[in-house]
Write a structure and sequence with these properties.
alpha+beta, five-stranded mixed β-sheet, Ribosomal Protein S5, domain 2, formyl-coa transferase, domain 3, eight-stranded mixed β-sheet, elongated
Length: 597
């Protein structure tokens, strides 16, 4: 057995630093979170060479008193908690007391700080194993942390870093999430001398979303509010037009902290399921609030993963609220014409947002009529106020309603697939296949919920070979199959017989349909619901719907429209594709050059 050694202090510090500081964005995260916890209204972040050469974080917060400066660099020194019991109710972003200790172990660190009660500020250069004393210096209230030469003493760590641009992009992504998490704080990011973005700190979340994701995203947001004793939330859901191919655009905050939480993510996706195509995910930015005692944030040094107590209750609350929010609005996909001049004409320039070190810190926005709805939008090169334009409003009069139907002017069928309808000043196109598919799916689900599903006998029955695990799955969920009109019998010798199917799905590939259900149940057990079966019914209901490239008569399309408008969500097929899209008269006239303003 090898001899046991007691590690020296330097090695211990660098190992500990490796758990907190893996790359430059970890440094920025720790420092900015400290600035937020210090009550800052303005935070400026500057990096050079992706953060390896320089990281400077400046704020106008409470500062650090001269007596506490040296203690701030000690391991596990923190002002956020006192004992283990405090972890159960922690509300600050940082609390471990590892940030400055870990950062200073792998870089050169300089601190400039001043509290409101001190007449002068303090400058402190951290040097290992030295007894440096903070020196007096003129400085405004707040703190500036300067980190130079990151990983200079651990060159092996640099080998695992990505390119300087990639490391800088991670910092940019982090600062964007911080801006979204705290719209009431003005955030500015500078990289290699260039200002990448800044926000005003006006408290308007929509402003920050516009700044980060652009006008098209801001035009397609649905306000989301949830009030419950267990959990509350406020933010925005994206319309189906914003659905993405991965979860990178699902942005969640818990008590002000950007977090990853599987329960919340799956709950939002479940609430949006009717509007999602296969392998698509919703766009959303949502702030959640919950009793800190119901959350465990002390899971990983990055403090990004959280665990929730009462997981099932929270899942149901969130998914039901998201579903109700999505169903409350008419989500016909508009096809706007967005031109650069349209964006510019809505901007009103106002004075540039102040730097944290400037005396004047409050933005003096140009006066706007308080009766007008305004969205303050900050750009990197200047500060601009964007007035909400008509494109950003949802439809006030629902197209799919019995009252509106008398005003429909059905023009005809295009490509034997799309129906053209004129209604007031808007032109609509309906996909007959997507619409009929949704009607058939909802008709079957309504029958399922009311236990009135009509079955169609299959003669001869469909025989499917199953293994022991699949047989167990069928036995476990036999009641669900029966409720959906799928009659299954044991056929012996490791086989089952399907003797009936829901009438609305009769004639589809029943063998493939049932085999896919078994495969998914095998991989993803239902856990108390019937989501997998519903998804399979959604995927197969299209086989029983009227296809594209099929002629339909006028009476048939009117009947389809009447059935469509009776649904809770008539705007998307079971796969999430739109059933209707719209073109406003003004946008069409712009295309033809009839109007130029």
């Amino acid at each position: 057995m090898s001899k046991i050694h007691v590690l020296d202090k330097t090695t211990i510090e660098q190992i500990a630093a490796g758990e907190v500081v893996e790359r430059p964005f970890n440094v920025v995260k720790e420092l900015v979170e400290n600035s937020i916890d210090a009550g800052s209204s303005n935070i400026s972040v500057e990096i050079k060479d992706g953060g390896l050469s320089l990281i400077r974080v400046t704020d106008d917060g409470n500062g650090i008193s001269k007596d506490d400066i040296k203690n701030a660099f000690l391991p596990h020194a923190t002002s956020k908690i006192v004992n283990i019991d405090d972890l159960l109710s922690v509300r600050s972003l940082g609390f471990r007391g590892e940030a400055l200790s870990s950062i200073s172990a792998v870089s050169d660190v300089e601190l400039i700080t001043k509290t409101p009660d001190d007449l002068t500020g303090s400058r402190y250069i951290y040097e290992k194993d030295s007894d440096n004393i903070p020196e007096d210096i003129g400085a405004p209230n707040g703190t500036t942390m300067i980190v130079r030469n990151l990983f200079y003493n651990v060159p092996a760590r640099k080998k695992f870093l990505k390119s300087l641009s990639s490391e800088g992009s991670m910092v940019s992504d982090l600062c964007e999430h911080i801006a979204l998490s705290h719209p009431e704080i003005a955030i500015k990011l500078i990289s290699n001398g260039k200002t990448l973005f800044q926000t005003s700190g006006s408290g308007d979340l929509k402003e920050v979303i516009y700044r980060i994701y652009g006008l098209e995203t801001a035009q397609n947001l649905i306000p989301f509010v949830l009030e419950n004793d267990l959990i509350s939330a406020e933010g925005y859901l994206g319309k189906p037009t914003l659905n993405r191919s991965n979860r990178n655009y699902e942005t969640f905050f818990m008590n002000g902290r950007y977090v990853h939480c599987d329960v919340i993510s799956k709950a939002v996706e479940e609430g949006c399921r009717e509007y999602l195509m296969q392998h698509k995910f919703p766009f959303c930015v949502i702030h959640f609030k919950c009793d800190p005692k119901d959350i465990d944030v002390n899971v990983h040094p990055a403090k990004m993963e959280i665990r929730l107590h009462k997981r099932e209750d929270i899942f149901d609350i969130i998914s039901d609220s998201v579903r109700e929010c999505m169903r409350s609005l008419e989500l016909i996909k508009a096809v706007p014409v967005i031109r650069e001049e349209d964006n510019k004409k809505n901007e009103v320039s106002i004075p540039k947002a102040p730097e944290p070190f400037e005396t004047k810190r409050i933005l003096n926005f140009k006066h706007v009529d308080p009766d007008e709805e305004v969205s303050n939008v900050i750009k990197a090169d200047n500060v601009a106020v964007i007035r909400d334009v008509s494109q950003m409003n949802l439809f006030e009069d629902k197209f799919l309603s019995q009252d509106s139907m008398s005003e429909y002017k059905i023009i005809g069928q295009l490509f034997k697939t799309y129906w053209l309808i004129e209604y007031r000043d808007t032109f609509y196109m309906m996909d007959q296949h997507a619409a009929h598919e949704k009607v058939k799916f909802e008709r079957l689900m309504a029958a399922y919920r009311s236990k009135t599903v009509t079955s169609q006998s299959i003669n001869p029955p469909i025989i499917i070979d199953v293994n022991l695990k699949e047989a167990d799955i069928i036995n476990e969920y036999i009641d669900e199959f029966n409720k959906l009109g799928i009659e299954i019998e044991d056929f012996g010798s490791g086989s089952i017989a399907i003797r009936s199917m829901p009438q609305d799905l009769y004639g589809c590939d029943e063998h493939e349909f049932f085999r896919e259900i078994l495969d998914e149940l095998n991989e993803n057990p239902l856990k108390g619901d019937h989501e997998v079966i519903l998804n399979k019914i959604a995927s197969m209901s299209c086989k029983a719907a009227v296809k594209g490239n099929t002629e339909m008569n006028l009476s048939g399309i009117k009947a389809l429209l009447r059935e469509l408008m009776s649904l809770d969500n008539p705007y998307n097929c079971p796969h999430g594709r739109p059933t209707l899209i719209s073109f406003s008269k003004s946008e069409i006239e712009k295309k033809f050059g009839r109007i130029v303003t």
